[in-house]
Amino acid sequence: MRCGNPILLKRATGWRGSSDPKVPVGLDAAAALWAVLGRRLPDDFGEPDGGPGAAKALIRQPDGSLTPSAVAARALSVPGDADWYLFRVDDFTRLTVTLDYAAGIGPASVALVPDDAAGRTGEELPDSRTPGHQQIGPGLVAPGTYRLRVYGGVTIYELKVQVPRGALVPDMFEPNDSPERATSFTLAPPPKNGVSTTLRHAWRAGSYELSLHRPDDVDHLEILDIPAPSGLTQPVLSVWRTDAPVDVALLGPDGAEQGRWHGRDARVVLEQGRAMIRISGPLTRYTLRLGLELDRSKLPGPYREVDLSPIPVGGDPWPEEGELHGWERYFQILVDEEIAGTPGLQLSGPPGLTLHLLDEIGTPVTEAERVGDGELRLDLAGVAPGGYVLRIGRDVDASARLAPGRLPAASFRLGPML
Ligand SMILES: [Ca+2]
Ligand SMILES: [Ca+2]
């Protein structure tokens, strides 16, 4: 179609939904433009094609924001087109990425791809969308190089990145920079009557979001009342979800190092009694997880290789939603007096789900009962305290088991019953 014939163009692309008989065919500007362009946008908006390696550096504007250029929109000019951009931040930064696109022409999305794939940035930034608009952030990101991938349609768009500096703040346990000021934790079972006999305040097992907020920040943690390993469980301290590799040291009573781990994912099996831990390194956020975990080496053969998710301990939040992609999913679960005192565990989902508690040799100890449509209840009242494997399965025809990938995922909810 040529743009030199407006009557033909309007007839071909016009809008026929008007209730006014005098306007049988209205002008649909987006459709008309689209037809004129031959259902392909011109490349001359500037095309940073060629994948992440050919990403085009964003340009800093007078207001401090970063954009592809000072003027004009960009285009995803053919289906499957993707534009890559890159930018670098030298300090912790409160990042916001906004994408505005012509929804009347086509859709678009933007994805943030950190060069440091092992870091924690990315997955935890808020991502909100309305037609014609997407925003990632605002959220804190670590120093480093980031790429942006704009993709998803044939359309025109504007991309803007804001990078004001964002500081790490002292964590909830500061100051704890010396063994004398160490943050205390206890792994003793919770007191039965709710009254602690310990004079000193001690935090309980769970996950804590912490940081090394200054280059000279050192975090000392004292863990008391560490139980001996029993059954399938052992006491473990983990440091993970870091922005940068950290040093985790186990200190003896005289302050000497008895062990040291360096990296982004340290896991220290604690010995019975008391332990002093020192965490140091460059500026970073990190997650501390402390509690009893399943000792995989003690699991029966078939369960050593399965993807075993940790069940929350202590103050950890319970997962609200999960997805069951395969035929079986396993969770480690510690049955303690707190859990055994509840009416049980509840599982919601489509019919056909099964829920079993397995002991250390993989034998089902108890099976959930169906209490309603898509509702299962696992009674834990008579179960001896200890570590178990929770198996969530799908009860279907054997023939259908041959093609699990073709079936939709089931969603389920797992949490203590109220
Ligand atoms: Ca700290
Ligand atoms: Ca500290």
Number of strands: 30
Alpha-carbon distance between the two ends: 65 Å
Shape call: flat
Low-confidence stretches: 313-323, 396-418
Largest sheet: 5 strands, antiparallel
- CATH class descriptor name of the largest domain: Mainly Beta
Q: What is the level-2 CATH architecture name of the largest domain?
A: Sandwich
Summarize the structure.
The chain has 418 residues and is mainly beta. It is built from four helices and 30 strands. It has helices spanning 6-13, 29-36, 301-304, 337-340; strands spanning 56-57, 59-60, 66-67, 74-76, 82-89, 93-101, 109-114, 127-130, 133-141, 144-151, 155-162, 183-186, 206-212, 219-226, 233-240, 246-251, 257-263, 266-269, 273-280, 284-294, 308-310, 322-324, 328-335, 345-348, 353-358, 364-367, 369-372, 375-378, 386-394, 410-416.
Write the layout of secondary structure elements.
Blueprint: H1 6-13, H2 29-36, E1 56-57, E2 59-60, E3 66-67, E4 74-76, E5 82-89, E6 93-101, E7 109-114, E8 127-130, E9 133-141, E10 144-151, E11 155-162, E12 183-186, E13 206-212, E14 219-226, E15 233-240, E16 246-251, E17 257-263, E18 266-269, E19 273-280, E20 284-294, H3 301-304, E21 308-310, E22 322-324, E23 328-335, H4 337-340, E24 345-348, E25 353-358, E26 364-367, E27 369-372, E28 375-378, E29 386-394, E30 410-416
Parallel strand pairs: 1-5, 12-14, 21-23
Antiparallel strand pairs: 2-3, 4-11, 5-10, 6-9, 6-11, 7-10, 8-9, 13-20, 14-19, 15-18, 15-20, 16-17, 16-19, 22-30, 23-29, 24-28, 24-30, 25-26, 25-29, 27-28
Helix pairs in contact: 1-2
The structure holds calcium ion (2 copies).
